Amino acid sequence: MALGIGVDVGGTKIAAGVVDEDGTVLTTVREDSPATDRQAIIDTITRAVRGLRQDFPEVATVGVGAAGFVAADRNTMAHGTNLDWTGMRIADAVSQGTGLPAVVENDANAFGWAEFRFGAARGRDSALVVAIGTGVGGAVIVDGRLVRGAAGFAAEIGHINVVPDGRPCGCGLYGCLERYASGTALGVNGWELARVRPAYAARIIELSGGDADRISGKAVTAAAREGDPAALECYARLAHWLGVGLADLCAVLDPEVIVISGGLSEAGDILLDPARRAFTDNLTAGHHRPEIPVVLGQGGQEAGLVGAADLARQP
After folding, report:
1. How many CB atoms lie within 10 A of CB 271?
2. What stretch or stretches form a coiled coil here (predicted)?
3. pLDDT > 70? residue 1
């Protein structure tokens, strides 16, 4: 059985694990991420891979998943978002340090691939996987293959426009989906509501230490789990725009299944029920097509490294 190592590189932590062909994680290691020093990041990855190979010398490949625009060569970080390695040939550096063939993949692609191969989209030919956390990422699989695009930048679904001239986005544009359908957006919804209706949003404010300016998505979620009407309204607003975005994407992609993953998916039906309604209401030809199920992801915290390891085995 061919073993691979997957590495999930974040702004604060680097997780690496040995993964078999069935997507089972045999062992993992975690280290702090020196995000401001590109060579230190590579050294940390190299050290983790070498350590894992001591117990699993038969490991054949390394896949690295990281946030940013990864070029189509699966080697070069064309633009890093939260790591200092824009322009770096990451796969070459990892391969040189470990002696193993290596590839680099966008982290959302790696996460989505794990759901497609081993998780909620297993057994399908096509899928749209949406990762909702601080921002919104995604992966598109068509006919069993990950869609990377000509430059490697495909599936940046958080930056489709849903509100013309809407909220400013860190990408430089306005009205992007992730400004309305992310964990960050959920906190903004709570803050906006608290500004104009503080009594109505009292529980959200209370869970934010009594300071409306400190409202976060976590506080809104905690209130929503208690059944707080204001928090549920914040979720309804988020779910509306998520449903609109998903419907727009399905008009182009027509996937067999949509998988919702990432930190915000832990809200479960609080998010999923209104998102499904909004999706159905906005889906083109919705009454004339087979149902597109919208389901929760199954990959958990290790999905990024599992997907990266498996993608390293793919042509």
Report:
1. 24
2. none
3. no
Beta strands in 174-283 (DSSP E): 258-261
Task: Write the burial class of residue 108 (CB in 10 Å: 0-12 exposed, 13-18 middle, 19+ buried).
Answer: buried
Q: What is the pLDDT of residues 289-302, one digit of tens each?
A: 888 999 999 998 89
Identify the residue whose tokens are 């993953």: 261
Q: Is 210 left (phi over 0), alpha (psi -120 to 50) or beta?
A: left
For residue 21, what is the DSSP state? T
pLDDT score of 67? 87
Residue owning tokens 């309305």: 180
What are 67-100's pLDDT values in tens digits? 889 999 999 999 877 677 889 999 999 999 999 9
User: Torsions phi, psi of 130, nearest 5?
Assistant: -115, 120
Give the chain's length: 315
Cα of 304 vs its chain's centroid, Å: 9
The edge-to-edge listing of strands for the beta sheet with 145-146 is 145-146, 136-142, 127-132, 258-261, 294-296
Q: Whose CA is closest to 303, among 178, 148, 121, 47?
A: 121
Token pair 């499904």 is at which residue? Answer: 276
- Dig out the tokens for 200 from the structure: 């109505």
CATH 3.90.78.10 fits 124-297, yes or no: no
4-113+302-311 shares its CATH topology with 124-297? yes
What is the CATH class of 4-113+302-311? alpha beta
Q: Which amino acid is at 91?
A: A
Sequence ranges of the domains in the chain: 4-113+302-311, 124-297
Token reading at 115? 């759901």
